[in-house]
Specification:
By secondary structure, the chain is mainly alpha-helical. The chain has 5 helices and no strands. The protein is elongated and about 75 Å long.
Length: about 120
């Protein structure tokens, strides 16, 4: 009987350790968005306040940011960084094409760069 109890105790202890590890890992991934929310909000604001020659371009950039935030909610920080990097590329192309003011494009790019830097700092967790 004592060996059965000790086996059950070990199993319970292992389950508690595993549950604790899972909670730590899932909260670390979710924290990336919380930690970087200021930068993500600044990026959304920069996109929202810029004047585009075609409203569709602005809508597409916001959709890319929404997709990045969705990836963060899923704990996929690297995918979110890739989507924000896509925003930077798109804004560079739009500025080169005269579809957004270069200074506004720079503000968007700076905000996107800050968001990427923040997120990359959380992805090592």
């Amino acid at each position: 009987m004592p060996s059965v109890r000790s086996g059950m105790s070990i199993a319970i202890l292992l389950m508690l350790i595993l549950a604790s590890l899972l909670m730590v890992l899932s909260s670390s991934k979710a924290d990336a968005q919380t930690t970087c929310q200021t930068e993500l909000d600044a990026l959304r604001s920069a996109i929202g306040s810029a004047t585009f020659t075609n409203q569709k371009d602005q809508v597409n950039l916001i959709a890319k940011l929404d997709a990045a935030e969705d990836k963060l909610e899923q704990g996929k920080t690297d995918d979110a960084v890739a989507k924000i990097t896509n925003i930077r590329t798109a804004v560079e192309r739009l500025a080169a094409g005269g579809k957004v003011d270069p200074q506004e494009a720079k503000a968007i790019d700076d905000a996107a760069a800050a968001a990427v830097t923040c997120l990359e700092g959380t992805s090592s967790v």
